[in-house]
Every structure is written in C-alpha cells, then in structure tokens.
Specification:
This protein is of the alpha/beta class. Helices cover 36% and strands 21% of the residues. A 7-stranded mixed β-sheet has the order 2-3-4-1-5-7-6, with helices on both faces. The chain starts with 5 loop residues before the first strand and ends with a helix.
C-alpha cells in the first residue's frame, strides 16, 4: 500500500432495516465518498465492505470502509483494515453520528472522549488509542423524553431529509480535506458553518 494511504471508516449497522437511520450517517457519508472516487464496495475479509481509490488523479490512496458488524463492535474491522493496509493511527478517520451536535452541523477532532458512543469506544479499545481523527456528524438530541437509543435507530425526519444530501456532501468534503490539509485548517472551514 502506498505510503500516503488513509483509512476512512463510516460507522453504522448492517442490513437494509438500519440503512437510513441517524445512527448510520457514517455509512451514508462513506457511500458519498465511494461515489466520488467511482468505486463499488466489495466484501473484505476484515468484516467490512471496502472501496479502494484515489482522492483525485495521483492523489492520496483511500481505503473507504463500512464495517459489516454492528456499530458497537466496529473496532475489530477498523483495526484489522488498518493493520492489513499498513495505515498508521494518524491516518485513520472515523465518521459517526453525534447527538451532542445539532443536526446539519459537522465538527472535527482528533482523540478525546467517546461521549457514550459505543462504536467509538470499541474502536479506541481495538486500536489501542483514542487519537484517531473523527468527523462528527450532528444528528441532534432526541425530542422530549425519547431514549437516545430509540432516536438514533430511527430514520431522519421529513424536514431533515430535505437537508440530508447537503449534510452528507459537507461531511464527505470534511473527510477529504482532512486528508489533504491539516486538522486545524479543516476545523476552521467547517466549524464556522452551522
């Protein structure tokens, strides 16, 4: 694998019943990235669907991944892909839903806590560090007294669905910029939006 390869893992749950849930926004963003590089997902032995491509002609290599395990056990596929493709921790980007950020907002960070996100917790444990890059896609908080788990396992609402294509496009742009620029530059661009 080329020295400048990056692993971009979008989190979600497998199967059509979950495909449009808020919790699967990571899968949706990686689908957009795969469309951009013109790749089709293939089943990989690391328990993930994978697309390999380049970010632009002669650009950095991307390994786009959707773990085919349930969200809470995403760590095994992510760590296995990083190992198999020789990708270091600093070039792992995880895209996930974030309830502590309003819908239609993207935040980026390296490391830090997992905020109760079991998928992130499992990845941190599997790779032995929290210091990977994260594209945090805001899905907002549950209304009223709805349980968080019920909320994230529901599809986006009617009004949200109108804005969802732009949100997915922005999150894909953010992931691409993390590959070609610094975290700080990417934060300056996307943290000023929303």
């Amino acid at each position: 694998m080329a020295e400048n390869a990056w692993l971009v893992a979008g989190l979600g749950n497998p199967g059509p019943g979950y495909s449009r849930n808020r919790h699967n926004v990571g899968h949706m963003v990686v689908d957009e990235l795969a469309r951009r590089v013109g790749g089709k997902f293939k089943v990989h032995k690391a328990r993930a669907e994978v697309v390999e491509g380049r970010l632009g002609i002669g650009g950095p290599r991307l390994v786009l991944a959707k773990p085919s395990t349930f969200m809470n056990v995403s760590g095994g596929p992510v760590s296995a892909l990083a190992r198999l493709f020789g990708i270091p921790l600093e070039r792992i980007i995880v895209i996930h839903d974030e309830i502590d950020i309003p819908f239609n907002t993207i935040k980026l960070k390296r490391g830090g806590g997992e905020g109760g996100h079991n998928g992130l917790r499992d990845i941190s444990k599997a790779v032995g560090s929290r210091d990977y890059l994260r594209v945090r896609v805001g899905v907002g908080r549950p209304p009223g007294r709805m349980e968080t788990s019920d909320y994230v396992l529901k599809d986006f609402g009617t009004v949200e669905k109108k804005d969802l294509p732009m949100l997915l496009s922005d999150a894909a742009d953010a992931a691409e910029l993390l590959v070609t620029a610094t975290l700080e530059e990417t934060q300056q661009r996307f943290h000023s939006i929303g």
